[in-house]
Design brief:
Blueprint: E1 3-8, E2 13-17, H1 20-28, E3 33-36, H2 49-55, H3 57-67, E4 71-77, H4 84-91, E5 95-96, E6 101-116, E7 119-126, E8 129-133, E9 138-142, E10 149-155, E11 164-165, H5 177-182
Antiparallel strand pairs: 1-2, 1-7, 3-8, 4-10, 5-11, 6-7, 6-8, 6-9, 6-10
């Protein structure tokens, strides 16, 4: 189940929302797009990028038309990935992008942390969740110590994922993905 938790900058929980429509509305007020896509068609974990994109072709084409994305790929990580710790650490520090960050979770889960104003909006995403983080929004992503997810990534700039790190240590004051899953 998708989940939104709102914290202050010191890590104190202010609000917790489990209802999809409430999550969508709250995030929309922040200019964050949050959708739930139909995931009725089961895909084996071994599905190729082409197979994944074919299953979600209509939604992917709609999003590409709407936002003019230049490239799309599928990324997947499992607990046995040899670089899981390195990859996790790369995304754990607060950063921004000059482009918006867009992901659709085909399988598994991950947690986005959006630092907007004096609050942090913690969005636990799972299979079927689509999220678009606006350009220049301070954020970070935690896939957990035992990552398990497959996601379609959308890019509107040729360079793909380019981070501008803020130098803030705020990510250390908020519960990790693993702690969010356990709560």
């Amino acid at each position: 189940m998708s989940l939104l938790k709102v914290y202050d900058e010191e890590g104190n929980l202010l609000e917790s929302i489990k209802d999809y429509e409430e999550i969508r509305k709250k995030l929309a007020s922040l200019k964050v797009i949050f959708e739930r896509w139909n995931t009725d068609k089961e895909l084996p974990w071994s599905a190729t990028q082409e197979e994944v994109l074919q299953v979600y072709k209509e939604d992917v084409e709609r999003i590409v038309r709407e936002y003019g994305f230049k490239s799309i790929d599928v990324v997947s990580l499992t607990p046995d990935h040899p670089k899981r710790e390195e990859l996790r650490n790369m995304f754990l520090s607060e950063h921004t992008h000059s482009d918006f960050e867009v992901r659709f979770f085909v399988d598994g889960c991950g947690t986005f942390y959006l630092h907007i104003g004096d609050k942090v909006y913690v969005v636990f995403c799972e299979k079927g969740d689509f999220i678009s983080v606006p350009a220049n929004t301070k954020h970070w992503f935690d896939m957990g110590t035992k990552p398990f997810f497959k996601a379609i990534r959308f890019f509107s700039i040729p360079e793909g994922w380019v981070a501008n790190f803020t130098g803030s240590d705020i990510s250390k004051r908020l519960p990790s993905h693993d702690e969010i899953v356990e709560s």
